Amino acid sequence: MLNASDESEGELYKAEEQKRTLRGWCELVITASSSLATNLLIEKLGVENIRATVHELGPDGMNVVDPLRSGGNWGRGTTR
User: Fold this and answer.
1) Contact, 36 vs 2, CB < 8 A?
2) Is residue 3 in some structural domain?
3) Total domain count for the chain?
4) Is residue 4 in a domain?
5) pTM, 2 dp
6) Domain around 62
7) Contacts of 78 (CB under 8 A, 6+ apart)
8) Cα–Cα distance, 75 to 78 (Å, whole number)
9) What distances in angstroms separate CA 24 from CA 21, 54, 70, one per listed residue?
10) How far apart, in whole angstroms, are the C-alpha atoms of residue 11 and residue 31?
11) What is the per-residue pLDDT across 21-59, written as a single tens digit (0 to 9) for each?
12) When comparing pLDDT for 26 and 73, which is higher?
């Protein structure tokens, strides 16, 4: 279970009833390494859609996994 005390960016936890944009979540993933924002994006967009977009962008060797459904194996050469 994710917890605000484990996050480098805890403001997202306080914004439970507020609307946020996908761009805002992406910015938190990139700038604050927010696990909550990562999980929200995966839930909203689906890991397959994210993989397809990453593939279109062309970064070699990147594999996007869903850390909630990968059995905790995402740390082996993968990006969450």
Assistant:
1) yes
2) no
3) 1
4) no
5) 0.64
6) 18-80
7) 63, 64, 65, 70
8) 6
9) 5, 18, 25
10) 13
11) 999 989 988 888 888 888 889 999 998 998 898 889 887
12) 26
Beta-carbon contacts of residue 51 (< 8 Å; ≥ 6 apart): 63, 64
From the list 42, 41, 46, the residue with the least C-alpha distance to 27 is 41
Classify residue 64 by its DSSP letter: B
Has residue 1 been placed in a domain? Answer: no
Q: Measured between alpha carbons, how far is 9 from 31 in angstroms, rounded to an integer?
A: 9
User: Under a CB-based contact definition with an 8 Å cutoff, are residues 12 and 36 in contact?
Assistant: yes
Q: State the alpha helices, DSSP H only, in 1-80.
A: 11-14, 22-32, 35-45, 47-57
Long-range contacts of 42-51, Cβ-Cβ distance < 8 Å, separation of 24 or more: 42/66, 42/67, 42/68
> How far apart are alpha carbons 66 and 52 in whole angstroms?
14
Q: CA Rg, the chain, in Å?
A: 13
